[in-house]
Every structure is written in structure tokens, then in C-alpha cells.
Amino acid sequence: MSSKLIAIVGPSGTGKSTSIKTLDPKETFIINVARKELPFKGAEKLYNVEAKNYMEVDDIAQITGLLGTISEKAPHIKNVVMDDAIYSMSFLMMRKANETGFGKFTNLAKDVTNLLTTARKLRNDLKVFYITHSENIEDEGRIVGQKIKTIGKMLDNQIVLEGLFTIALYTHVGEDKEENATYHFVTNRWRNYPAKSPYGMFETNLIPNDLQLVCNTIDTYYQDETQA
């Protein structure tokens, strides 16, 4: 078995980055692509360069190399989080704005594919979370579904990101009886969410937005599979 690659997908403000707070910082490395503050109390004390569990990197090739280094030289790290991963594509396209032709999209597709396939070939006790934005799929003005956001159709014609993930959890925001917001992950296809996970991994379509819960569930699933 190899490392596990998990997509956490949803609009801004729906609890994606907040879900990191339940992870153990001694076992977690955060790659902050957008270089913005983590949205939970005490984040800067828990994750920083001095603690060797945090870096701000937006270059896809550098992120790919960093994943390999963590896998080989940091055995205590069990979880790697790429937060706001979409910006690694956006920033690269901005740097290539003056280039013409389809070649830049082909090269970007290769870089993204290499990043995600590398993330799936690391040591087998490592989980890599690809936290990114979603976008709506519309038909005649109606929202009929969602997908992982990219930089547009030019890239979508080169690569289908969803196909590179075995587990893709989408965020869902609801309300409780007091009309307070509730934050969940969708674990399998439900309503217009194209979430997916291996059969039987999650017992319900909705779970709390808790990455440690996700880790524990994945570990239990594959341990039971190995012992079966």
C-alpha cells in the first residue's frame, strides 16, 4: 500500500481550512500555498517554520519536491496538508500570462499530474490532503453539480482532477434548530455533491468537518481490509 491522497473541496468559508485544527501538529506538516493565516485559534504557535511543520510554498515543482523530502526524511509526519492548493495553478498562470499558445496549459497539466501522482506514491503511513475550491456546474442557468475548481476549460481539456483522487470530500454548510451554521463533509455522491470514497469507508453521507476523524476512519478501513 502507498500514501493516501484526499481532496477536501468547497467554497471559501465552508470549513475546509478550519478542519485542520483537530490534527496533531506534531504529526502534521502544512504547505500554505496562498500564504494566508490559518483560521483557528493558536494556529501560528502550533504551525511555524521553527517547529519544522509549516512552509509557505506556491510553486508546484517545489511542492512536489517537498512532499518527497517529507516522506523520506520526516517519518514522524503522518499528515501533509496543501492548503488553498488551487493557487499553485493560478500563480503559475499569472507568471506565464505573456506566453501564447496551448503549450503552457499542457505543461501545467503535466506539473499538476506529477504533483498528485507523487502524492500517491509516498510512504504508506502518510496522508496528503489537497484542500481546494469548488466551482458550480450550470445547465441553462441552473446549478446541476459541482467540480474541483481549476483555472478554466483550457486546463480541463488536458486533465480531469477528480480522476486522480480515490477520496474527495465536499463541504456542506447547514443550520441547526437555533439557526446556527453547521459544518460537515459530504463523503459520497449526495444531492449535487460529487463526493466519493471507497465503498463502506464512511457510514453516513455527512460527517463533521474534522480531519482527524477522517484520518482515523481511513486507518480503520484499511486495517480491517488488511486483516480480512
Class by SSE composition: alpha/beta
**Amount of beta strand:** 15-25%
Straight-line N-to-C gap: 15 Å
Summarize model confidence as the mean pLDDT. Answer: 91
CA-based shape = globular
- Low-confidence sequence ranges: none
SSE pattern, N- to C-terminal: EEHEHEHHEEEHEEEH
Helix coverage percent: 25-40%
| Count of separate DSSP helical elements | 6
User: Largest beta sheet, briefly?
Assistant: 8 strands, mixed
Physical arrangement of strands within the biggest beta sheet: 3-2-4-5-1-8-9-10
What's the number of extended β-strand segments? 10
Tell me the radius of gyration.
17 Å
What are the defining features of this structure?
228 residues; alpha/beta; 8-stranded mixed β-sheet; two-stranded antiparallel sheet; 6 helices; 10 strands; 24% strand
Describe the protein's architecture and organization:
The structure is a single chain. The strands form 2 sheets. An 8-stranded mixed β-sheet has the order 3-2-4-5-1-8-9-10, covered by helices on one side. The chain is globular, with a radius of gyration of 17 Å. The relative contact order is 0.19. Helix content is 29%, strand content 24%. The mean pLDDT is 91. α2 packs parallel to α4 (103-119). With 228 residues, it is of the alpha/beta class. The chain has helices at 43-46, 60-73, 86-95, 103-119, 153-156, 211-227, and strands at 4-9, 28-32, 54-55, 79-83, 127-132, 134-139, 142-148, 167-175, 181-186, 206-208. It contains 6 helices and 10 strands.
